[in-house]
Amino acid sequence: MGMKVLIVGGGGREHAIAWAVAKSPKVDKIYCAPGNAGIASVAECVPIGAMEFDKLVDFAKEKQIDLTVVGMDDPLVGGIVDKFEAAGLRVFGPRKNAAILEGSKAFSKDLMKKYHIPTAEYTTVHSPEEAYEYIKTCKYPTVLKADGLALGKGVLICNTYEEAKAGVKELMEDKKFGASGDNVVIEEFMTGREISVLSFVDGKTIKLMASAMDHKRAGDGDTGLNTGGMGNFSPSPFYTPEVDAFCKKYIYQPTVDAMAAEGRPFKGVIFFGLMLTDDGPKVLEYNARFGDPEAQVVLPRLETDIVDVFNACIDGTLDQIDLKFSDQACLCVVLASDGYPVSYKTGFPISGLETFEGKKDEFVFHAGTKFNEKGQIVTNGGRVLAVTALAPTLKEARAKAYAATERISFANKYMRHDIGHAIDEV
Ligand code: AMP
Ligand code: GLY
Description:
By secondary structure, the chain is of the alpha+beta class. Helices cover about 30% and strands about 30% of the residues. It has twelve helices and 22 strands. The strands form five sheets. Strands 10, 11, 14, 15, 16, 17, 18, 21 and 22 form a nine-stranded antiparallel beta sheet that branches. Strand 15 (about 265-275) and strand 16 (about 280-285) form a beta hairpin. The protein is globular, with a radius of gyration of 21 Å.
């Protein structure tokens, strides 16, 4: 009998994870909670929310799930892994005491300071009064970060004292992100290129995945509001052997060792958000999960059986895994609903999805889709689809991905037209 795997989440990242798991010859059944219309092509979707821990545990027991993989940050930070472990279930992801690496920016900044991991200078404030006092004297621009999870939107870059004052009010007094703004990290503003590096970690050993480069702003030319990510590509040409060597020495293993030394061994995926500053690479943030859409460009390049990697992370045997990525470049363009990330309409039928069937180098990962009552696949979110292409070079992958976006139509389809613009600067 092959394995039964449950994936928790329902976005483009979870579609990419489910797709990678489906390639494993060890697996013969995949469930996804709650999943989406695209995930339904590789997994049986079950209508249980990612935060319904008791229902998920009951489901995993009833179906005799061999392995559960948690894609999203909220359940990880909320302790889903501890719940599964307490029920004797096998689960991939950090426990609550380790997911705090993403769940609390104050925690992660203090960790980096204590263990001399390069990051921006900062202070943490615990009340609006303390914050207003501090911003009178700090350097500008300055960066305000809500301590807790805020869908990637709790970071405010403030050019002036007036902007910072408004930011403190928004985060700490108006509580725009709820309790996430009870404490705020105020950080030095850094400049440089950003790179995403994902890794597998088993508590002590870390194995890096291929680098990626995200496009967080909604509009062409990196303008407009911050989003979850409008497209990205892998590898990043700016992730040079020198950068890699520096990060290996000062950032990656030191982070894993620091978590272990704190009694919070990290098992799962650590996502290092890095900035290449003039003073060398520095950590912008940690995430305790795969990136979205980083997973959509990194996992198509993974050659090792992902189930073996998940198991090795759980068992503490990652040192025995030979983690391999193909030389192919991968680029993904997110098709969103016009108006994202603020407000947008959904429920529009999507056409052209069948043109990706059977293709080995063009994929369409679903982020926000569902079946309507007529059984049609319709839009169901801000980010709708991630159109992804593999090719020998980044430029070819870009041309292929953009050509493939033309085959998909839905009302209010929106995308950036310059994903991968940095490739032309190399
Ligand atoms: P984070 O959620 O911490 O990654 O922040 C979101 C985005 O804000 C990052 O991807 C950066 O573009 C920007 N950012 C965060 N911290 C800083 C900083 N200290 N200096 C400049 N930009 C930053
Ligand atoms: N794409 C950025 C993230 O997943 O946090």
